[in-house]
Protein backbone atom coordinates (compact mmCIF):
# COMPACT_ATOMS: atom_id res chain seq x y z
CA UNK A 1 0.00 0.00 0.00
CA UNK A 2 1.45 3.33 -1.06
CA UNK A 3 0.78 6.31 1.12
CA UNK A 4 1.11 10.04 0.70
CA UNK A 5 2.01 12.23 3.65
CA UNK A 6 0.47 15.60 4.43
CA UNK A 7 3.04 17.91 6.03
CA UNK A 8 3.40 21.62 6.67
CA UNK A 9 5.18 21.77 3.28
CA UNK A 10 2.18 20.18 1.57
CA UNK A 11 1.64 16.72 0.14
CA UNK A 12 4.83 14.65 -0.12
CA UNK A 13 5.76 11.07 -0.88
CA UNK A 14 6.64 8.63 1.87
CA UNK A 15 10.48 8.57 1.89
CA UNK A 16 10.48 4.85 2.75
CA UNK A 17 8.40 4.08 -0.35
CA UNK A 18 10.68 6.15 -2.58
CA UNK A 19 13.73 4.34 -1.17
CA UNK A 20 12.06 0.99 -1.85
CA UNK A 21 11.53 2.00 -5.50
CA UNK A 22 15.10 3.25 -5.87
CA UNK A 23 16.48 0.04 -4.34
CA UNK A 24 14.34 -2.30 -6.48
CA UNK A 25 16.36 -4.72 -8.59
CA UNK A 26 16.08 -4.47 -12.36
CA UNK A 27 12.88 -6.24 -13.43
CA UNK A 28 13.51 -9.42 -15.41
CA UNK A 29 9.97 -10.77 -15.78
CA UNK A 30 6.71 -9.29 -17.00
CA UNK A 31 5.25 -9.48 -13.49
CA UNK A 32 8.24 -7.66 -11.98
CA UNK A 33 8.04 -4.98 -14.68
CA UNK A 34 4.34 -4.40 -13.97
CA UNK A 35 5.13 -4.07 -10.27
CA UNK A 36 7.92 -1.60 -10.97
CA UNK A 37 5.77 0.50 -13.30
CA UNK A 38 3.00 0.59 -10.72
CA UNK A 39 5.46 1.86 -8.14
CA UNK A 40 6.80 4.51 -10.50
CA UNK A 41 3.25 5.60 -11.25
CA UNK A 42 2.84 6.33 -7.53
CA UNK A 43 5.72 8.81 -7.45
CA UNK A 44 4.69 10.13 -10.86
CA UNK A 45 2.23 12.36 -9.05
CA UNK A 46 5.25 14.30 -7.81
CA UNK A 47 7.50 14.21 -10.92
CA UNK A 48 6.59 16.71 -13.65
CA UNK A 49 6.69 15.27 -17.19
CA UNK A 50 7.61 11.77 -15.96
CA UNK A 51 6.60 10.20 -19.27
Automatic annotation (TrEMBL):
Q: What is the native source organism of this protein?
A: Capitella teleta
Against InterPro entries, the record matches this protein to: DNA/RNA_pol_sf, Retrovirus_Pol_polyprotein, Rev_trsase/Diguanyl_cyclase
Q: Which domain of life is it from?
A: Eukaryota
Q: What is this protein called?
A: Reverse transcriptase domain-containing protein
List the Gene3D superfamilies hit by this protein, alphabetically.
3.30.70.270
